Amino acid sequence: MYQLVARKDTGLGVATALSVTFHVAAFAFLVWWQQLMPNLGPVQTTYYVDVVNLPVANPRAGSPTDTGNEAKPAPPAPAPQAMTTPAVPSKTAPGKKAVTGSTTESTAFQERMAKLEGKVDAQRQSAAFEELRKRVAARGKVGMPKGGGTESGSDYTAYLHSRLKDSFKETISYQTKAPFVMVRITIDGDGRIIRTRIEKSTGDKAFELSVVRAITLAEQSIVPPPSRTVYEGAFVFKPQGVTQR
Amino acid sequence: MGLEMFFTSTGLVVKGVLLLLIMFSVVSWAIIMFKFFQIQKAFSESGRFMDFFWKTKRFDSIASQVDRFASSPLTALFNEGYSELKQLMEAEGAKPDHGGLSTDLGGVANVTRALRRATNLEVNRLEKYTTFLATTGSTSPFIGLFGTVWGIMVAFEGIGKTGSASLAVVAPGIAEALIATAVGLVAAIPAVMAYNHFQHKIRVLVKEMDSFSTEFLNIVQRNIAGK
């Protein structure tokens, strides 16, 4: 008896093998891509301005424990303005001509006033600068408490702390409930991290790895310590952030 | 976070969801590749078979050469129609050559039924496995979404335990969870696209098979009328 049967198709096994290969290749490509380019986004340097320790002319100004807290002398009084008499309207030219003459005189008056005001402002500014110069010359070096008066701003530990905090946000990862790592970092005069030692840890390997990666990441952007001396400091890393030890 | 770290740090449920989605993706891509070549071959060989069919005058000559176009669904129709015709003629004691197609209208109805059966079988063959593509396309995003919801629940639980809600703590957990939805979409999108494409191609092939059946029956009836 004749029996109608569906034809068999071959090739599904080959297609499955190809599909598996394709997926493995796609996964390998993704891993390779991540290792090749860990940071795809533009890296923008963050600048920190320590408004407390800025190198100002007089750091103690405003403090009740030091001199220099006297009230600022009043700025020199502006020069008396020259009085001008209003123009007498002409008798013979009423209408348009008279109006034009009055406008011209008013403009001239405003110009004179502007010149006088500019002169007074310039005098006031030069007097203020002169006073500042005198104070600086009288007190010698100024700046942050431990600085030589030539540093550009903030405390190096605070600066390093901010760099580590930023990079730690990029790398943070942990497996245990409340991980903790204390790291001692040594930086040479050229701003290179020459030693990183984990002094205390709760043992979370993922967290330790993320801390090490954060330090490596921070190393790319840190500047040398002040006066090119070797710096050593300890920092505590927690999921909540980085603190100075 | 690297991919290798990701797979080690996610929870069991999210891992299971990801594995399921990857399996869906692997199987659906296998079906996509298999169906693509099958349908492409069916189209190209159908075209060649139709040329050969119209050039050759005798059914027995076509039947002897039909294996050259094995991937075409039209050859299956021809084989079934011709086999039915031969059986009818043998039943009448006639020889199955070009000049001896002596059968009545009841025999034509038999051939029609044989062609219809063959068409149905060929449609089933062509549509086989495509339902898996439809299933992948419709369910994968939901499976991924389930993984994401679960991952976010676990992440929030972790946040509650650590007591910190900073972005650095919240973001990795949510990013991990969202990967499940992304993988679900990666599995679903090609499956839906391929399913729609194959459905269109199969509809075209079904129309070709209908046209061929009509032509075949016309030839059979012309021969009967010519007797």
Write a structural description.
- The complex is a heterodimer of chains A (245) and B (227).
- Chain A is α+β, with helices and mostly antiparallel strands.
- Among the domains of chain A are: 59-140, no CATH class; 156-244, Fusion Protein Consisting Of Minor Coat Protein, Glycine Rich Linker, Tola, And A His Tag, Chain: A, Domain 2.
- Helix content of chain A is 41%, strand content 11%.
- Chain A has four helices and four strands.
- A four-stranded antiparallel beta sheet of chain A has the order 2-1-3-4, covered by helices on one side.
- In chain A, helix 3 packs across helix 4.
- The mean pLDDT of chain A is 76.
- With 227 residues, chain B is mostly helical.
- Chain B has one domain (3-225).
- Chain B is 85% helix and 0% strand.
- In chain B, helix 2 packs antiparallel against helix 6 (130-162), helix 4 runs antiparallel to helix 5 and helix 6 runs antiparallel to helix 7 (167-225).
- Chain B is rod-shaped, with a radius of gyration of 28 Å.
- Chain A binds chain B through residues 2, 4, 6-7, 9, 11-12, 15-16, 18-20, 22-23, 27, 30-31, 34-35, 168-169, 172-173, 175, 177-178, 206, 239-241, and chain B through 1-5, 9, 22, 25-27, 29-31, 33-34, 37-38, 70, 76, 80, 83, 87, 114, 117-118, 121, 124-125, 128-129, 161-162, 164, 166-169, 172.
Structural class of chain B: mainly alpha
Mean pLDDT of chain B: 85
Largest interchain contact: A-B, 30 and 38 residues
Helix content of chain A: 40-55%
